[in-house]
Task: structure prediction
Amino acid sequence: MDIQMAGIDHNTAGVKIRECFSFTVSQTERALQEIHKQPGVRGCVLLSTCNRMELYVSAAPAEVSMEALLEKILPVPFADLSYRQYFIERAGEEAVRHLFSLTAGFQSRIVGEGQILTQVKDALKRARELYCTDTLLEVLFRQAVTAGKEVRAKELFTHTDSSAVHCAVARLKAQGYPLRGKKCLVIGNGQMGKLAAEALTDEGASVTVTVRQYRSGMVEIPKGCSRIDYGERYRLIPFCDLILSATVSPNLTIRKEPFAQARKGNCRTQILIDLAVPRDMEEEVAQLEGVTLYDIDAFQSGWKADQTNGLQAEAAHFLAVKTAEFTDWYACRDLVPRIQQIGRRAAEEICWRMGRGLDQLPKKEQERVTRMLNESTQKVIDKMLYHLRDGLEREELHHCIEVLEKIRYG
Result:
């Protein structure tokens, strides 16, 4: 199977390592274009999130080296053994199983979180818009997304935390830290930032959201929140109990020195939560007295005790079935042009056999009827054969196609 994948994730590396391999949208686009032009690569998709960076390519392992491809796009030398140890390569069915499991939410730090489904869809869309995908990756990613949706429809994750934000809130509450009445600052108004603002507001906190001045009139902040210009964030910091940052910017939003200066003379105990990768907050901030800093790796949620047996087994079986459906499609994909050829030959024979009956019609009418007969016959034959493909075992289907190909039309 000509599918290869290489990547790094939270299972192999902490946030300090992962942030070295995080791609912005523009960097992702440049990387895709660079990979796609390499000899032997028919298609590629790059997935970059807070918890992982994974490159998928449609290419024969004998023709393309994943290590060589990574060298083309990574911001640090992949040949450096200190980094290579964090990467995992998968090929063939192993890569397929991983993507299906990932999209379903089983590989997330927060098991069952819903963001990964959107992230996989966006990764495919971005690659498609750059003309970097091929039929193989299109089908693989579409089927993986469909499987992920079906897993969620089965409500296998009903009792899990749905995101890092909700997991962070649950942890603070479990530690006896009430959020009601607390003054919170949320830096970042993207998807994660808005989710954080909403979650904190729902807990009864007073939330202020930062907005870049040039976007002030365009950004819609969550209901119940106030706004402040991003450039004014340090002015508000001395009055905050909790500061959460979740941007997609590669630049730091909180630095130690200006942060320390802003809270000078302030004895307030403060909690800082950094959910960004690359990180938004300078880690030295944690050295300041009264400050507790959490990064995204501090929040994790797996299967609950009542889910570890039945539901987990049901989910694993479901994904195994979906993975098998893709591998069956892959094994039979070479039959598609043969099926279409059989349909064309059948259509040609029917038109030939009806030729005498059409002779009495005007020429233009003959052409119209012949064209309709040709198209309709081919569609019917194709439909029949595609249903056979879905209903027969692989060996039976190949035998059926071989028999039909032996029939001499015309």
